[in-house]
TrEMBL record:
SMART domains listed in its UniProt record: HTH_XRE
InterPro entries: Cro/C1-type_HTH, Lambda_DNA-bd_dom_sf, LexA-like, LexA/Signal_pep-like_sf, LexA_repressor, Peptidase_S24_S26A/B/C
GO molecular function, one term: DNA binding
Cited PROSITE patterns: HTH_CROC1
Pfam families the UniProt entry points to: HTH_3, Peptidase_S24
Leader sequence segment: none
Protein name (database record): HTH cro/C1-type domain-containing protein
Gene3D superfamilies for this protein: lambda repressor-like DNA-binding domains (1.10.260.40), Umud Fragment, subunit A (2.10.109.10)
Top-level taxon of the source organism: Bacteria
HTH cro/C1-type domain boundaries: 18-64
Length: 228
């Protein structure tokens, strides 16, 4: 990988984002001096770190990669470990756990896996800890249809933004999908449906304690046995 390619791209995206060296270092869990050395071209990060940097700036990792690098080398290095319990299968796919529903207050690891479902390897490698959740209902049918399998990237405390579709538990009920918005001291869970009967739910500061975000929807698929 050419240092000039990474340096120029990193410097451009850093300027556009407005993030400081200290903030980038904190988010990527590296020393501030490392960020400074990336910026001045003294060093470049390993390919395995490129994905985290790309995610931070909201771009493809390939923006940092010189065209002369072999495609297979890039793909193989950027690919992260498979999800725990994933079973490699032929045809560039992996399997991830499917949960029919997630009851409130129950840790994910304590919930029985309904079955393992194949998803494309490219998708699974981006979200190594993701799981599938069956969509029940029509409250998000503009985005994901009833009965589909939604791939959920587990919540890590800081990666949910306004407008993201999240799997969330409300007041002890099973996890549901809604668009997430945080406005001052209020959290809004908004449906995205063709049915006008579904309305947004607003939660003020004390009430947000009754919300549990399980993760963010990053992809969805039809069930393997779906009939069209």
């Amino acid at each position: 990988m050419e240092r000039d390619v990474f340096q120029q791209t990193f410097e451009r995206l850093k300027t556009q984002s407005g993030l400081t060296d200290a903030e980038i270092a904190r988010r990527l869990d590296v020393n501030r001096s490392t960020v400074s050395r990336w910026k001045d071209g003294t060093i470049s990060p390993p390919l395995s770190k490129i994905k985290e940097i790309a995610n931070l700036f909201g771009v493809s990792p390939l923006e940092f990669i010189d065209d002369s690098v072999e495609e297979n080398e890039v793909r193989n290095t950027l690919k992260k470990a498979l999800p725990e319990g994933a079973i490699p299968v032929k045809g560039k796919s992996i399997t991830v756990p499917l949960y029919g529903s997630i009851a409130a207050g129950v840790p994910l690891e304590a919930i029985p896996v309904e079955e393992y479902i194949e998803i494309p390897e490219d998708v699974g490698s981006w979200y190594p800890y993701a799981f599938l959740l069956r969509v029940n209902g029509e409250s998000m049918n503009k985005v994901v249809p009833n009965g589909a399998y939604a791939l959920i990237d587990p919540y890590n405390g800081e990666d949910v933004g306004n407008g993201d579709v999240v799997a969330v538990q409300v007041n002890g009920y099973e996890a549901t999908l809604k668009r997430f918005f945080k406005l001052h001291n209020t959290v809004v869970l908004e449906p995205d449906s063709y049915n006008p009967e579904y309305v947004a739910q607003n939660f003020t500061s004390p009430e947000t304690q009754n919300l549990r975000i399980m993760g963010k929807m990053v992809w969805f698929m039809s069930p393997p046995n779906a009939k069209f």
